[in-house]
Amino acid sequence: MGACLARSGAPVTMVVRAAALAEYPRQLKLESPFGNITAAVAVSPEVPACDVLWLTVKATQLQDSLLALKNPDSVKAIVPLLNGIDHLAFLRQRCGAERTIPATIAVESERVAPAHIVHRSSFARLNVSSAGRNLLSSTLDELQKLGFDCRFMDHEPTLMWSKLVFLGPFALTTTASDKGTGEILSDPHWRELGMACIREACAVAVAEGAKLNADAVIAGLAKMPGNMRSSMQKDVEQGRLPELDAIAGPILRGAERHRIDIPATRSLVASVQTRVQARKQ
């Protein structure tokens, strides 16, 4: 996001940990199907006064990252691109509902070195609540020129659950199986488990008020590149704490609230937990 926003002409400040500040490069390097980008940016240990704070941390890092936001009133809007849903309530309480603009991003990208990002998927889909239309219209127009697929959405439950009903099953199945998308779709056991998880997630999403169709989500998954791997899968492989609660938690808790049976999801969550424990030993 930082590289693409800087490429579009926006002044960008990367907020980094104080301990990393001295050695953090003042140029971002992005390798992307949209074209490689090298962009000069400012770097700061604190969030400066700005129009938009793009929150792009892991869900597990959210609370620590907000220590850098000393004065929420100096920021016009906060656009969180975190996985999951529960962070919205936290941010609204902490920073103000009026400046928190819900959004989701679907992309496979990976930091291979400080300030060096590889965008691995052929797409980057950014959906933003219509509450941010006045402030962000020109920004989304510029991102679309670079290759993003952007849109504003009026209905928040549909906006947030549209990503989660795909991401949850995708992350859980790839991590539990340690396989890519193509391998899962070609394996009857994992394919059936993944499809069942999508249907369960969609049932919970609909009960939560989202307007979604499980068949459409499944059809979308079948079109995904066969070599795609989830960030949760990579986190577990590399011994990092996965975003298991942020990604699976809303489905589990929603199912409990609405008394929806979700055996495939619970089975996949248990398998991921087993893999996490095995990596710790």
Furnish the topology, listing elements before pairings:
Blueprint: H1 2-7, E1 13-15, E2 27-31, E3 37-40, E4 42-44, E5 50-55, H2 62-65, E6 75-80, H3 87-95, E7 103-106, E8 109-113, E9 116-119, E10 125-129, H4 133-146, E11 149-153, H5 156-177, H6 181-186, H7 188-207, H8 214-222, H9 231-237, H10 244-258, H11 263-280
Parallel strand pairs: 1-4, 2-9, 5-6, 10-11
Antiparallel strand pairs: 2-3, 7-10, 8-9
Helix pairs in contact: 5-7, 5-9, 5-10, 5-11, 7-8, 7-10, 7-11, 10-11
What percent of residues adopt helix (DSSP H or I)? 40-55%
The string of secondary-structure elements, in order, is HEEEEEHEHEEEEHEHHHHHHH
End-to-end gap = 36 Å
The assigned CATH architecture of the largest domain is: 3-Layer(aba) Sandwich
By DSSP, the count of extended strands is: 11
Strand order of the main beta sheet, please?
A: 3-2-9-8
How many structural domains? Answer: 2
Largest sheet: 4 strands, mixed
What structural class do helix, strand and pairing data support? Answer: alpha/beta
The CATH C-level name of the largest domain is: Alpha Beta
Sequence stretches where pLDDT stays below 50 over 5 or more residues: none
Radius of gyration: 19 Å
How would you describe this protein?
The chain is an alpha/beta fold and 281 residues long. The protein is built from eleven helices and eleven strands. The protein has helices at 2-7, 62-65, 87-95, 133-146, 156-177, 181-186, 188-207, 214-222, 231-237, 244-258, 263-280; strands spanning 13-15, 27-31, 37-40, 42-44, 50-55, 75-80, 103-106, 109-113, 116-119, 125-129, 149-153. Helix 7 runs antiparallel to helix 8 and helix 7 packs across helix 10 (244-258). The longest helix is centred in the middle third of the chain and has 22 residues, at 156-177. The radius of gyration is 19 Å and the shape is globular. The relative contact order is 0.12.
